[in-house]
Amino acid sequence: MENRYLRMIRGMKKGRGRDWSVYILRCGDGSLYTGIAKDVAARLAKHASGKGAAYTRTHLPVQLLYREDAYTRSEALVREAAIKTFPRPKKEALAAGSIRSSAPSRGRRPARGTGRKPDAAARPRRRPAGDSR
Hints:
The protein is of the alpha+beta class. The chain has a domain of 84 residues: GIY-YIG endonuclease (3-Layer(aba) Sandwich), CATH 3.40.1440. It has five helices and three strands, in the order αββααβαα. It has a three-stranded antiparallel sheet with strand order 2-1-3, sandwiched between helices.
């Protein structure tokens, strides 16, 4: 194996990687932006300079409202996606600290559904376009 891959594997075994953060920004027009980064201060500087995400480039200036630390990259992506589904009042409450972070507990997978797919016969079938029955 190549040396860089061996280094990568050794790094994975050491348990590194809980250095990602999830953050919420308030943009100049009052809208909220949620993202992830390893270095939030550097990422905020990129957003502020107009070299960050495409959304923040057109909604300057930006201000950091909220931040959660100590995630792996995949945990941060899952948490970011969860926050993005929140309605605006819930995001505002999270940023204000009036609701507790509902970040998933680490070391245990969140519960999933039954794993069964819905019965195909129970779903209504769509007719192809142009079918005039």
